[in-house]
């Protein structure tokens, strides 16, 4: 089955700096890659996603890149703010798997003032 | 549109008991997926229901089961509870489809504690 690895497990940045979180997946047939943000005690919130026919997608300060050849995708957050502090999860979905998402282990991002 | 709702939000049960959790998806969404979240194992897929049929199942024992009703609301049941079943149970709804991923939106979860 699909396996998703996520790095780093913790990331601390200064406010205004950029943050990058990386994930790799094992199933070359995977075609949908969402990113979720989960604040303490809250539900996971979909912040951005990318499909396998696209190499990059941006939404304001957030961007995701996908390298299908290398089977990895990354989340980029620019001009980080304290409210970006949360746990971020990457996930992958394969065709034929319905809506099953396989998640990475999460990255605790801390934005320091 | 109202978001995904789950009931109850918190539950305390004793080993050996059974429990039923409920999930109401976003209006118009036909797929409901269930996930278990624990500090040690992270987010793990339990199963997905679409049009009242289980479309996919994760690697959980048969004690975990679910169903979906004609209005797309879903329930999951855990029988013979074990201490290790203590977790946050999240459901996610999606417009669904097949062959490509669709955005999934999570409910607030049910925090289950087994004593």
Q: How would you characterize this protein structure?
A:
The complex is a heterodimer of chains A (113) and B (115). With 113 residues, chain A is an all-beta fold. Chain A is 0% helix and 54% strand. Chain A contains no helices and eleven strands. In chain A, the strands form two sheets. In chain A, strands 2, 4, 5, 9, 10 and 11 form a six-stranded mixed sheet that branches. In chain A, strand 7 (62-67) and strand 8 form a beta hairpin. Chain A is globular. The termini of chain A are far apart. Chain B is mostly beta strands and 115 residues long. In chain B, 0% of the residues lie in helices and 52% in strands. Chain B is built from no helices and eleven strands. In chain B, strand 7 and strand 8 form a beta hairpin. Chain B is globular. Classes of the chains: A mainly beta (113), B mainly beta (115). At the A-B interface, strand 4, strand 5 and strand 10 of A face strand 4, strand 5, strand 9 and strand 10 of B.
Overall average residue pLDDT of chain B: 93
**Computed Rg of chain B:** 13 Å
Q: Give the fraction of residues assigned to helices of chain A.
A: under 10%
- The sequence of SSEs of chain B as H and E is EEEEEEEEEEE
Largest sheet of chain B: 7 strands, mixed
Structure annotation, total helices of chain A:
0
Q: Would you tell me the overall average pLDDT of chain A?
A: 95
Q: Low-confidence parts of chain B lasting 5 or more residues at pLDDT below 50?
A: none
Instruction: Note the run of SSEs of chain A as H and E.
Output: EEEEEEEEEEE
- The count of β-strands of chain A is 11
Spatial gap, N to C terminus of chain A: 41 Å
Helical fraction of chain B? under 10%
Strand content of chain A: over 45%
Uncertain regions spanning at least 5 consecutive residues of chain A: none
Q: What amount of the residues of chain B lies in strands?
A: over 45%
Give the helix/strand class of chain B. mainly beta
The backbone outline of chain B, from C-alpha atoms, is globular
Shape summary of chain A: globular
């Amino acid at each position: 089955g699909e396996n998703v690895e996520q790095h780093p497990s913790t990331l601390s940045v200064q406010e205004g700096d950029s943050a990058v979180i990386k994930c790799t997946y094992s199933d070359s047939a995977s075609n949908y890659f969402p990113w979720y943000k989960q604040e303490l005690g809250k539900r996971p919130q979909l912040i951005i996603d990318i499909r396998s026919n696209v190499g990059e997608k941006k939404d304001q300060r957030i961007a995701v890149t996908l390298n299908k050849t290398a089977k990895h995708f990354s989340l980029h957050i620019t001009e980080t703010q304290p409210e970006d502090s949360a746990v971020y999860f990457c996930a992958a979905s394969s065709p034929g798997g319905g809506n099953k998402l396989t998640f990475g282990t999460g990255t605790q991002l801390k934005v320091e003032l | 549109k109202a978001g995904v709702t789950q009931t109850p939000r918190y539950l305390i049960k004793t080993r050996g008991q059974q429990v039923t959790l409920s999930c109401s998806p976003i209006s118009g969404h036909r797929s409901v997926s269930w996930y278990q979240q624990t500090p040690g194992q992270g987010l793990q897929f339990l199963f997905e229901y679409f049009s009242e049929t289980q479309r996919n199942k994760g690697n959980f024992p048969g004690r975990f089961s679910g169903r979906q009703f004609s209005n797309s609301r879903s329930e999951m049941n855990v029988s013979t509870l074990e201490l290790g079943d203590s977790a946050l149970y999240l459901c996610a709804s999606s417009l669904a489809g097949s062959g490509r991923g669709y955005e999934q939106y999570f409910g607030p979860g049910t925090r289950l504690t087994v004593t």
